[in-house]
Specification:
The complex is a heterodimer of chains A (about 220) and B (about 120).
Chain A: E1 5-10, H1 16-19, E2 25-34, E3 37-46, E4 49-57, E5 63-65, H2 66-78, E6 85-89, H3 92-98, E7 103-107, E8 111-114, H4 118-127, E9 129-136, E10 139-146, E11 149-157, H5 163-180, E12 182-185, H6 202-220
Antiparallel strand pairs in A: 1-6, 2-3, 2-6, 3-4, 4-5, 4-7, 8-12, 9-10, 9-12, 10-11
Chain B: H1 3-10, E1 15-22, E2 27-32, H2 39-61, E3 69-73, E4 76-82, E5 87-93, H3 99-116
Antiparallel strand pairs in B: 1-2, 1-5, 3-4, 4-5
The chains are: A alpha+beta (about 220), B alpha+beta (about 120).
Amino acid sequence: MLPGKFLGVVIDFDSTRELLTKIKKGYLKASWRDGDSLKTGYVLVSDGTILGALVEDVLSRERIEGENALRKISEVSLSKRLKAVELYEADVTEILRENPSIRVENGVISEEIPGWDLDSLLLLLTTYKGELRVHSGGTSWRLYLDRGVVKAAHTIRGPSLKGNKALKNLLLEIGKVMKDGRFEAGGSWEFTAEDEVNNGGVFKEGVELLREKRRVDNAKGF
Amino acid sequence: MFENVVADLLRVDGVKGVAIVSKDGLLIEGQASDRTIEVESVAAMVATIYGTALNVSNEVFHEEAVDMVTLESPKGKIITVEAGENAVLTVLTDPKVNLGLVRIYLKRNAQKVASML
């Protein structure tokens, strides 16, 4: 158990990601059943950034730490097994000093964002560094993002495209993605030179423009 | 939904079982580290004990409230507190458990359960 001041419990939440903004410095704590066992996961957060993670088996006291723990928590979060999350205010620096093995770099909780939710997508793009998968109908794309800039892209389902061609294809299909697709953040990807993209900032710019267009269209409706 | 509560209490040294029970005896959530403990049976019995304690408190003290019910035996303890209007939270412990610590965790977690129900 980590030290901290209990702030409250959240039971109605759409995404674990949104909970990261509810505490300035501290951690989220959630427990879930895993077969016969009960596990507790902790995600250390400071100003919206994940700095550490730990999963502990309540009965056996076995621990998973760092990136592996965050991956486990993401998996549980994606399968919707987290029903209640407790928020704690804590000295994150001190916790990490005493438990250096729970530290993560560029941590993110894997998350699904529905295609229509451009606000959540833009919030993710501001701080996220890692893999983003985009799914729509029979096509899926894999992007490597660095704070809103696409560094690499290729398709994983549908037409076989890499690099700039894959990104262009995604931008052409973005309307369909917004309608019935989804974005899935999480993981890391060692891309090749063939997958690299120039001018990868167009993706975020495109999403921002679409959000603006939607606002204007909605306003016209009144 | 109550896995955090159960996990918190099970982590306390000497606690062998935890149950959140509706006042009519149904198990809401529970877990025991000792596989010989049948949490569902305990749940029904605990609700009965709590209900009886309330009746006694009402009869003797004219008070329709009970802070805590403790059953002590040579082989262990069962400690129960109210957790909101409709439920109680109970722990089963070893005989030599740190009672003060258990009580603190029990009350803290009972408040959490009450806020979620």
